[in-house]
Amino acid sequence: MTDPVEATGPRERDAWLRVFHEAREGARPLVCFPHAGGTAGLYFPLSAALAPGVRTVAVQYPGRQDRCAEPVVEDVTLLADEIARLLAEGPSGPAPVLFGHSMGALVAFETAARLEHRHGAAPAGLIVSGMQAPYRRPARCLPDGDDEAALEALLALGGTDPAVRAHPELRAMILPALRGDVRAATAYRPGSCPSLLSCAITAWAGRDDELAGADVEAWAEHTTAAFRTRHFAGGHFYLHGFPPPVVEAVRTALTHVTDTTAPSRTRTRT
Fold first, then answer.
1. Residue 121 pLDDT greater than 90, yes or no
2. Taking the CB of the first residue and of the last residue of the chain, which one, N or C, has fewer CB atoms within 10 A?
3. Is 264 a catalytic residue?
């Protein structure tokens, strides 16, 4: 499998895939996908906590921060096409685990499907968080077409600093990416690539998450390997700042991708 930080084209690679901390040679890559309106920086605390044993690689979607001059990609499958290509084109190395939260769970899932079914390079595991399984329509989604409503909904979920409301410059920076990502998540439908994976899937949600909740268990339908699910204290952004229980859960999930030899179904609550 490829090492994402060695993908073809260093400028292109560096635009999409960010590494915040050095890792030991041969460390397993953990490729992380942000939520709607989110940035690679969401995963900085996780990267710091896991280094140097894990090589955390955070995806930076176009249309935000240092990529703000680029158009937002309003299609989950197009994002997955590009990310899977970058991951597949690098030299041999440990197979990565993919980790996505909210909209990022959908992008991570589609990326995993492309790696396995198009590139012949299945990931070692998939961690999905705060999102219903692809064939389950969300019971509630961020509103599309209304910038103010989308921003207020994200604020209510805890995904954005409330100070943004009072700063027009910050709002102007955040809203284009948020708008495009919400459109991508709302329009997403699976089916452009086979959706049954051979890697283990771990599905998480906050116990008070109105967007995912108990429906994360339906992710079991998308793997022939081990499946585990866990609910954490908190809402949709229970993982904000990556508190110790979440970091330890990531470590455990990374261990399972190498230690699991037979399918299993485990449900844990904390």
1. yes
2. C
3. no
